[in-house]
Amino acid sequence: VGSGSAVSLSRQVQGTGGSSAVSKCSAAARGYIQDRFLRLLAGRRRRRAPLIHRGYYIRARAIDHCVQDFLLKTQSLPRTQILSLGAGFDSLYFRLKDMGLLHHTVVYEVDFPNVACQKATLIKGMKELSALVGDTGGDGLGAITFSGDDYKLLGVDLSELSELERTLEEAGLNNEIPTLFIAEVVLTYMENTRSDALIQWAAEHFPQACFLVYEQVHPEDPFGHIMQQHFRQLNTALHSLAQYPDCEAQQRRFLGKGWTECSVMDMNEFFTCCIPEDEQRRVQTLEPFDEYEEWHLKCSHYFVLAASKGMEPSWTPLSPIRCHAGPVGMAGSVPAAVCASLSGIPGLRRYGHHSVLIKPNMILTTGGFGEEDGQHCRVRNFHLLSKHAGHWEAVCVTQNIPDKRWGERLYHTVSCLSDTLALVVGGRTSPSSAGLGMLWLKFPEACDASGPGDIAVELVNLQPAAEAAALRWRHSTTEITFKGEQYLFVYGGRSALEPVLGDWHFLHASELSYTVIAVEGPVPESRHSHSACSWEGGVLIAGGLGAAEQPLGSVFLLRELEHGFQWQTIETHPPLVPRYSHTAHVHEGKLLLVGGVWFHASSVPGVTVIYLMTGLCLNYVINVEHLEWPLMLHNHSSVFLPNEKELLVIGGGGNCFSFGTHLNPEPVLLSLGSILTSY
Question: Which own/partner contact pairs does 449-454 have at CB distance under 8 Å and 24+ positions apart?
Answer without folding.
Answer: 449/359, 449/360, 449/361, 449/362, 449/386, 449/387, 449/388, 450/388, 451/386, 451/388, 452/386, 452/388, 452/393, 452/394, 452/395, 452/396, 453/395, 453/396, 454/395, 454/396, 454/397, 454/398
